[in-house]
Design a protein that fits this description.
The chain has about 425 residues and is α/β, with parallel strands linked by helices. The chain contains eleven helices and 16 strands. The strands form three sheets. Strands 1, 2, 6, 7, 8, 9, 15 and 16 form an eight-stranded mixed β-sheet that branches. It has a four-stranded mixed β-sheet with strand order 4-5-3-11. It is globular, with a radius of gyration of 21 Å.
Length: about 425
């Protein structure tokens, strides 16, 4: 018995305007300076920087370039770090915590400058982000956080009390929130397509549907075996993130692929969009399993995303959960049709910080924890400069030890449904406390 159809299409909304496609086959170079595994945001950004410095570079993707998270994500330029400042300080020290906080601002500015200087046509709009608070206690915490961002980093951020909430989000669900004006939105598939265009023009060789099967030391360099043949590489950079496979067993034990799902509504009337998203901002909230949502670039639809606890196939339940969340926020959308529902893998790990690290001579740029729109281009570019020995340009607070391995884990995230249930329980407790 087939499950009922809950959305018109199960492919990403973004692929309507920027479909992912294979690249024409090309000869495999016998030797390169650098082999890059993965041709998403991080791999292409690294390859672009390397090629423009005269390095011979080949990037290999097991799928079509960008077919993973790079063309499936929400397109919000948050640069979010999963850990809060206090937790980072406790784990890694105050100096590291402040460096990470400050680098988020630099990474966003890097992305915006890159889009502008390279003339990338990706519907980028610096519209700001509203984050809704679950209860007044969380609102007070957000308000203090907004003040700190403005004071310490000069970021335009401010609290939004409940009385003014509908000026930003047409819902009564939250109890106020905060705004950050340094965050915007882009069309993720268009951004990848444009990044691929400039990377190819720079001389980067990109091989689509060419999985890497092994990476082995070979004298002072490496032997990279692929489905199309073997390449000798002086250096290797791994940028596989949520789609890491058996070619990198060391990384696979450290990254957990977690499904993130997004739904898109049918086109809504202009007056409905004006009520529900009056400033056409990016949107988030303070729940552990909270939703992120936004208007489509043309301002005609609402796209809403969140975690998906399913592990196989394309079941209807995760889409129905997101639809229920959409209606909880905006009750007038109870009968709205969903045009698209799709999922992609984000990469989580025990440290929850994006990372550059080196192991046995291989450099890794990975672990973006759901915020790759900002972090992947930034970390990929820093990793390229690390490979080239450019000290200052390679400098980043995210270059340190590898993430810790996960006990009893070798690539099959059997524990994720239990983790998701744990987060859901935390949200229920927080909601109960907020509504007492």
């Amino acid at each position: 018995m087939h499950e009922p159809k809950v959305a018109d299409k199960n492919t990403p909304y973004w692929w309507e305007a920027a479909p992912v496609m294979p690249l024409p086959p090309q000869p495999l170079a016998r030797k390169v300076d650098v082999a890059i595994i993965g041709a998403g945001y991080a791999g292409l950004s690294a390859g672009l920087a390397l090629a423009r410095e005269g390095r011979s570079v080949a990037a290999f993707d097991a799928m079509n370039p960008g077919e993973g998270a790079s063309s499936r994500n929400g397109g919000i330029t948050s640069g979010n770090i999963r850990l809060d400042y206090a937790t980072i300080t406790r784990r890694f020290g105050e100096e590291k915590a402040m460096a990470i906080e400050a680098e988020g601002k630099v990474a966003r500015e890097f992305l915006y400058d890159f889009i502008k200087s390279e003339k990338l046509d990706c519907d980028f709009q610096l519209v700001g982000l509203f984050k809704g608070a679950i209860g007044y206690e969380q609102y007070e915490k957000m308000a203090r956080g907004a003040e700190a961002l403005a004071r310490k980093l000069g970021i335009e951020s401010y609290a939004v009390p409940y009385a003014k909430q509908r000026n930003y989000a047409g819902t009564d669900f939250y109890r106020g929130g905060m705004v950050r004006m340094d965050i915007g939105g882009l069309h993720p598939a268009k951004f990848h397509a444009e990044l691929l265009r400039v990377a190819l023009a720079s001389g980067l060789a990109v091989h689509s549907n060419t999985p890497v099967t092994s990476i082995e030391r070979d004298g002072s360099g490496f032997r990279v075996a692929t489905s199309a043949g073997t390449v000798q590489a002086r250096q290797v950079l791994v940028c596989t993130n949520g789609y890491t496979d058996g070619a990198s067993p060391f990384l696979r034990r450290r990254l957990v692929p977690v499904r993130s799902r997004i739904i898109a509504t049918e086109e809504l009337a202009p007056e409905v969009m004006a009520r529900l998203m009056p400033k056409l901002m990016m949107m988030g909230e303070g729940r552990e399993l909270g939703f992120y949502y936004r208007p489509s670039p043309d301002g005609r639809r609402i796209l809403l995303g969140g975690r998906d606890s399913s592990r196989a196939g394309d079941p209807a339940a995760p889409t129905l959960r997101l639809r229920s969340g959409l209606v909880e926020l905006f009750p007038e959308l109870e009968n709205v049709r969903l045009s698209h529902s799709w999922f992609g893998n984000v990469a989580m790990h025990r440290d929850m910080l994006p990372r550059i690290f080196e192991k046995n001579g291989v450099v890794y740029a990975t672990g973006f924890c759901g915020s790759g729109v900002v972090w992947a281009p930034w970390i990929g570019t820093r990793a390229a400069h690390k490979l080239m020995g450019h000290g200052e340009q390679a400098r980043t607070a995210f270059d340190f030890r590898p993430p810790a391995a996960i006990p009893l884990y070798h690539g099959n995230p059997w524990f994720m449904p239990a983790v998701i249930k744990g987060y859901a329980l935390q949200d229920r407790i927080a909601w109960w406390r907020a509504s007492r």
